[in-house]
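Input record (Table S2, row 363):
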Amino acid sequence: MARNCQTPVTVDREPVQLVGPDGIPTAEERYSRDLPAQTLCWLYEMMVVTRELDNEFVNLQRQGELALFTPCRGQEAAQVGAAACLRATDWLFPQYRELGVYLVRGIPPGDVGAAWRGTWHGGLEFTTKCCAPMSVPVGTQTLHAVGAAMAAQRLGEDSVTVAFLGDGATSEGDVHEALNLAGVFRVPCLFYVQNNQWAISTPVRNQTAAVSLAHKAIAYGMPGIRVDGNDVLACYAVMTEAAARARAGNGPTLIEAVTYRLGPHTTADDPTRYRNQPELDHWLAQDPIPRYRRYLQGQGLWSQSLEDRVAARAAQQRADLRDAVFGAPDIDVDELFTAVYADITPELEAQRRQLRAELARTD
Ligand SMILES: Cc1ncc(C[n+]2csc(CCOP(=O)(O)OP(=O)(O)O)c2C)c(N)n1
Ligand SMILES: [Mg+2]
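Output record (magnesium ion complex):
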């Protein structure tokens, strides 16, 4: 029997922030910044490695090695902070921009490369790391996350699932269904919306008339929290709290991480067509990486040797990614036909012949 939320839900307009853009701790006292020094440095390392690999993915796409890429530049804190506090057995349901989440989960960058190159098994090996393949049909992954959370609930596990989605996805019918189902059955699913202000060229003001995306939680009978998505410690803290609530059987949470996509929507997009330099400058001043570096400096945790170690690790990962992409086996185009359809119709056979002839011409 479904248990409905008995307590009235209110949502703060102001995002939770633990570290300001100047790197100074804020007055926020509801959440802790108290993590071991090693974890604090590791969060920095993961953000820097994410940005560096993001650059490498863009370069590889520009060189014609990848079909497409969805850069996450600017969203490193939102992604690393959210993923870092989870257990390896918590299932992740990404949209398509979650590079930082994959890296924290230990998914090899080469596997992400295979997904964007379109080679066989592209993305499928994510599942060994409890991460669903990327979801390009916007918002559909939220329903999968709720279904998996219901399974965990019935199996009596204390794992949680996380649906990663964007501001644009919140307008999809699937997302309404997922949130509603999760609320009614109090499933251990966290909805993590990265509000990066844009859905391709549609600004977030055109997505909803609600006070904020987090305020939608009120209607679903679950807690809604706005968090500064460019503050890695705030994202970590808010997600930790929501995961604990879900593990204890107290149901889902809708988190809105307020952040910004500094790059294009994809490598096929030109954002200068729909947004302006002052807006970009505003968000560049909120860049999560220099902010967190300043925080570590203030805490006496940053050192040149940390910076050097992180830079070396990032360079090595970039090289490994290039090797993985360049060394990937050629795609067997026949799989387009044999792995999708049970029966090959005459039309499909004609398409297969046409494709082979085309490839023979361009080889
Ligand atoms: C169901 C569906 N509708 C439309 C699209 C085309 N589309 C691809 S990405 C995108 C924008 C999604 O924006 P958001 O959820 O904010 O995520 P972001 O790209 O900003 O990370 C749209 C409309 C799609 N892939 N799937
Ligand atoms: Mg968006």
